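user: Here is a favour to ask of a fellow structure person. I have my own habits and do not want them to colour yours. Could you put it straight underneath, so I can go through it closely?

assistant:
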Amino acid sequence: MFKHRSDGIFEKTADPILGMTSHLMPRRYDAMVNFKLEVRCEAMDEYIKKTYEEKGIHFSYMEILIAAIVRMYAERPFLNRFVMNGRVFRRKDICISFAVKKQLTDDAPETTVKVKFTGEENIFEIKKIIDDIILQNKGDAANNDTDDTAKILTHIPNWLTKAVVGFLMWLDKHNSMPKKIIEVSPFHTSCFLTNMKSISTDYVYHHLYDFGTTGLFVGLGKEHLEPVVNPETKQIEPGKIIKMGLVIDERICDGFYYARAIKVAKKYLLNPELLEQNYKIPFKDKVLSGKELRQRKKEKKRLLKVQKRIAKQKNK
């Protein structure tokens, strides 16, 4: 019971230091580390222009960023972990949560969506998934399961809301949260994004929610011009820069692994065309279901019996 969850599997191979760290820092906000990521925009601008002219597809910075993050999680799977009640779990899906304005007006309501990815999608497939989910949530009349759940919790007495939320947190801590609640919760996600650029604001460092399992929060800021050094001419020139505030849970993996993961994301942001190819996740990095794990164990036992039988025949 305490090592089985609908959204993740207990990570038996996690470093013992990580296991100890999760007890020293039991709260997610205890383990927050801030990191600023700066990326030059010229490569993304050229890619956006090229794909629009050649394919009639218009990408935004946000869509390219999501595609780069999904690929980062696929290539660096240890990043897709979370800590619950002192234990490290491996998430079954790559989930990205972000807010969507129902209408482009000041008083328009906002909803939060969570999108699941396998990690093998290319950038065009990711854009279609994002476009479809945004279209479904546009308009004042549009409601999703997250909205419906939030309405129920805010339309009951305040003391009852506190009791329900406290009970849900207790269930989550003991890995007994109902699967349906986890599926509609945007806080049970690999990464949460806030697009400050859409409201012409610079990047922010947003805290990690202690409710849920979010291990990475990205605040995308507005692009602006800055003096930069040209690596070829060594001369200072104006450069279009976009900055992101990353807040990460340090209990998931070590700093070296995090640093290499961020370099992977930056590589794709500087070379978006690399995301046009689908990625094949190696078998060793796949999260298998309980049924698949049992079948694999049976197959290993069968092969072991065959090997023993062959060895006996050779000894005779």
Q: What stands out?
A: Residues 290-315 form the longest helix (26 residues).
